[in-house]
Specification:
The chain folds into two domains: 17-82 and 103-174 and 276-352, FAD/NAD(P)-binding domain (3-Layer(bba) Sandwich); 177-275, D-Amino Acid Oxidase, subunit A, domain 2 (D-Amino Acid Oxidase, Chain A, domain 2, 2-Layer Sandwich). 35% of the residues lie in helices and 29% in strands. It has 13 helices and 16 strands. The chain has helices at residues 25-36, 61-69, 73-77, 107-115, 163-167, 236-243, 245-252, 256-260, 304-323, 331-338, 341-362, 366-385, 390-404; strands at 17-21, 40-45, 58-59, 81-90, 93-104, 122-126, 129-133, 139-143, 149-151, 153-156, 171-189, 200-203, 211-219, 222-229, 263-280, 287-289. Strands 3-5-4-12-13-14-11-15 form an eight-stranded mixed beta sheet, sandwiched between helices. Strands 6-2-1-10-16 form a five-stranded parallel beta sheet. Strands 7-8-9 form a three-stranded antiparallel beta sheet, with no helix packed on it. Helix 1 (25-36) packs parallel to helix 4 (107-115). The two termini are 34 Å apart. This is NAD(P)-binding protein. InterPro entries: FAD-bd, FAD/NAD-bd_sf, PheA/TfdB_FAD_monoxygenase. Residues 17-316 form the FAD-binding domain. GO terms for molecular function: FAD binding; oxidoreductase activity.
Amino acid sequence: MSPEHTAQADDSKPGMEIAVVGGGLSGTLTAYLLGRAGHSVTLIDRHRSFPRTFRSEKLGPGEIETLRRFGLSAAVAARAACFDETLNMRRGSVVDRTHARHFGILYHDLVEAIRAEMPAAVRFVQGQVREIKAGARRQRITIVGHEEVTARLLVLATGTGDTLRRDLGITRRIIRPRQSVAFGFNLRPTGTDGFRHAALTWYGERVSDGIDYLSLFPVAGAMRANLFAYRDRGDSWIRALRERPKDTLAAAFPGLIGTMGDFEIEGPVDSWITDIAVADNYRQDGVVLVGDAFQTTCPATGTGVTRLLTDVERLCTSYIPRWTSHNVMTAADLAAFYDDAEKRRMDAYALETADFRRRLTIGTEMEWRLRRYCHFALRRVLNGIDRLSPALVGKLRQIKDAQSGQNVPSAV
């Protein structure tokens, strides 16, 4: 990326002047795609190098394919650990195996990989946004220690931060408080032979544990663990996981060490409690919201990056090209993005899948006990006949997912 600049009005330039506030994954991808399309883009973020943050750390085949369309899969793969098989376990026995290309990559490495590919048309301003004034004709962004940035369109990609949205009268409505808690940490093998499997997913043993699954997968230089559970912040089990992570894992997943090999926990245990929230009063002149700024996603579902990519791709490839000739950016103009059928389907799917995963994991009603039993029993049956007819198994899995209401990405 070029040194920091401020964007000034220049109607002689092709495309459109666009300011993107927020340099995480959604903002960085938006700036990249718009810059590649020839728009004059200013990306504004507090950090020149994105800091270490515990967020999405694994990409599945659908997400990799989207990055390929964006021209980014090779750049991301160069910083990721690639793996093609995941062993899926529950209660000490094999459920099935996932055969598909995945990337294990820490969130900040993913963002930096994309920033390194940023087109020259994108200018970067490092600083904290103090105020935003939006309107149909011009958007004005005041940044501490910098000149004002102006643009015809503002893309707000600030994640769960509320301050700037409040400037615009956009509110955040929590629809599922404390939906889930996620943990991330590194494992180091104690034996000389390393780990016995490239990647492993181990589903919760008991409903009372409130554990959806533990996912072990490689990232550059380490074996990473992501654990997803439905527990309260003050739960003593959470405190035990932070203080005695190996013992707590061994108790929650009997047979884990025997399956994967002995290990030690390296470094801190990161955690992330998710409230599922949606934006209200977001139909504004001159401003569009993408990613978590519009709707947050339960990380246990594995749909967060897919939903983000859908937002960014639909906005940058379907709608901004239509708006290039517009002299004004009214709320009515921008509503087409929010009303896009593919975006709405993905937003709804993320919410439905979050509800399904939670109920499948901790539901005690007879319906969910039966669905849980059938879900894993059918996966085991399909795994048993997989070698006989992979094509038939693929069809049966599609039927199973349609009937259960679940189409969880293969990363889960």
